[in-house]
Design goal:
About 30% of the residues lie in helices and about 20% in strands. By secondary structure, the chain is of the alpha/beta class. The protein has 3 domains: about 5-80 and about 180-375, Zn peptidases (Aminopeptidase), CATH 3.40.630; about 85-180, Glucose Oxidase, domain 1, CATH 3.50.30; about 380-455, Arc Repressor Mutant, subunit A (Orthogonal Bundle), CATH 1.10.10. The strands form 5 sheets. Strands 1-10-12-11-13-16-14-15 form an 8-stranded mixed beta sheet, sandwiched between helices. Helix 6 links the parallel strand 11 and strand 12 (about 240-245).
Length: about 450
């Protein structure tokens, strides 16, 4: 069986352990984004369930998505689950010409999310307050919702609005809005390796929101990446359990938190995954405390990959819910260019061209590297601390001297220098300015030569 270290090293070398190239892996993930893209997701409704169906199919043989249906009207801390919305189709027609101005069969963003059902004929003046555009991006359709205020509306490009006739206009929102359920999905990969003596088994929480229609980066990239990560982790031994939550944004996370009080004490590390398929370097947002284990692990990987680490702020995605004072979970957020910082955000330009196979693959490799840290970090002890041990007699040092030490040799020397039983391998990697995987490999080599213990 492939180990997590073996998986990480294979990916860093350019392929999966089975020989699948990173290019093929990226194309596979992008194809999954394309399959999910047209589905009309919202806080509730059949689009959410269809998305979970397809994600479940992609996990077949690796894991199962447990589906939860929670009745509308259910209280979740300070929130109440709103009515279920089922959109069949919405369109706007200029009756004077017969021209269809917008139609959700053309693009799902053309209707304001959670629009109330309506069928009417309106004048141009009466229609205009219900139309939404982006004047600064005249060819983009905005994404707009009205989850908790009952109204209706259409979204269109500024160019479409500029060319709007005098009407009158037929307005149709063919939808149901009433009692039903909120749906979310959950995957649990149990730990397969007993924890070290004296430690309790813990869980890693991975969260991706499940409510945005036809937005490829926000957040189909997160959903596709987390399912691909589950596929990979299902095939390796695991010291931690991995729990994946796929829920509608904000209220879905609060709902999950309200129903899992018994799980929360087991969460050792967590990540919200979103916006990972578009351009830009990786950006990690720390937990509210800023000094949790996940902060060190993800911060190391992101910086080594040329990314950026930012402090916590109470604005963003579901990391806000997990970090709320009452829960105080160690959950950060991983993305590329964050929300509101790229022009395609929450518009029709966040499409399949905006998300690339290469960026998806790069993010997945980074995630595997993070898991490698969480699983394989340790605080080893040097068993030969009185001077530098003779590595050559143990077959782990070059036989020809006189050359500069390689990274592999330096990784062993750095590890030996700080293996005092208190310093972690991640701390050694930071001091040595080396990748964690290099230090982890060095530690394994030294352990195999009976020069270290305490690696578990």
């Amino acid at each position: 069986m492939t180990t997590l270290a073996g998986l990480t090293d294979a990916l860093r070398a350019g392929a999966l352990p089975d020989g699948t190239s990173l290019a093929s892996l990226g194309e596979r993930m992008h194809a999954r984004v394309a399959e999910l893209y047209p589905l009309p997701r919202s806080l509730t409704g059949p689009g959410v369930r269809a998305t979970l169906d397809l994600l479940g199919e992609s996990l077949a043989g690796s894991a199962t998505i447990e589906r939860h249906e929670v009745p509308t009207g259910t209280r979740a801390h300070d929130w109440t689950i709103t009515d279920e919305w089922t959109l069949r189709r919405a369109w706007l027609t200029d009756t004077s010409t017969g021209d269809v101005v917008v139609d959700t069969d053309v693009h799902t963003l053309h209707v304001v999310g959670y629009s109330t059902p309506v069928r009417a004929t309106l004048s141009r003046d009466d229609l205009l307050p219900h139309l939404h555009t982006l004047p600064e991006a005249p060819d983009a359709i905005p994404y707009r919702t009205s989850y908790y205020h009952r109204t209706w509306g259409f979204c269109l490009t500024q160019r479409q609005l500029d060319g709007l006739g005098e009407g009158p206009f037929e307005v149709v929102v063919d939808a149901d809005l009433g009692p039903g359920h909120m749906t979310y999905g959950e995957v649990l990969l149990p730990a397969t390796v007993p924890p070290p003596e004296g430690e309790e088994a813990g869980e890693v929480l991975l969260s991706a929101h499940l409510c945005h229609p036809s937005l490829a980066n926000d957040n189909l990239s997160g959903l596709v990446l987390v399912t691909e990560l589950v596929r990979l982790l299902a095939g390796v031994p695991r010291r931690h359990a991995y729990r994946v939550v796929m829920a509608p944004g904000t209220v879905g996370a609060v709902l999950w938190l309200s129903r899992n009080a018994d799980v929360l004490p087991r969460i050792r590390h967590g990540l919200v995954l979103t916006g990972l398929g578009g351009p830009g370097h990786l950006v990690y947002k720390r937990t509210r405390r800023g000094d949790r284990g996940v902060d060190a692990a993800v911060g190391h990987v992101v910086r080594r990959r040329g990314g950026e680490v930012r402090d916590y702020s109470p604005w963003g995605y579901d990391e806000r819910q997990y970090n709320a004072l009452g829960f105080d979970l160690p959950v950060g957020r991983l993305s590329r260019t964050p929300h509101n910082e790229y022009p395609e955000y929450h518009t029709s330009h966040d499409d399949l061209a905006h998300v690339t196979p290469a960026e998806l693959t790069d993010a997945l490799v980074a995630l595997v590297e993070v898991v490698d840290v969480l699983e394989n970090d340790g605080r080893p002890r040097n068993l030969a601390p009185y001077g530098e041990p003779q590595l050559g007699t143990r077959g782990i040092y070059p036989t020809t001297g006189g050359r500069a030490a390689s990274d592999a040799v330096m990784a062993m020397l750095w590890t030996l220098a700080y293996a005092d039983g208190d310093t972690s391998l991640l701390e050694v990697a930071a001091r040595a300015d080396l990748d964690f995987a290099d230090i982890r490999t060095a530690a394994a080599t030294l352990s195999g030569a009976d020069l270290l213990d305490g690696l578990g």
